[in-house]
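Researcher: Structure prediction, please.
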Amino acid sequence: MATTVEDDIKNGYVDETILHQIIITEGSKTYLTKKVSEDNKDRLFKPYKDLCAVIATIISACNPNYLYPKSLASTIIEMAHFQAFFMKNLPSLTDFGANQNAADIALFLEDLVFSSLSR
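Model: Predicted structure follows.
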């Protein structure tokens, strides 16, 4: 999510770098629509919701007293995408625009998560 994507030789039919860029630039458009409730009823977001649930479970395992594991899970995924987008396109909205280093976004997210969980 927040690091540089390298193409996997096993998936020669998929350009993972391009796919990653599509996710970064277009991902939130899938649910920021007028039909989001209808699409949700059709279970179109189930894989995304399942991923968030897995991350929330890990968060809860790290700190069972943390009150917002689902919110933190979805926030870190979206924040990874937004920060990568800002880094490339709106650098004044992020601290990563100058160096263009995606690994720094991962460090930021780690800091955010562990700071939140240590309370």
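Model: The longest helix spans residues 69-89.
Researcher: Thanks, that helps.
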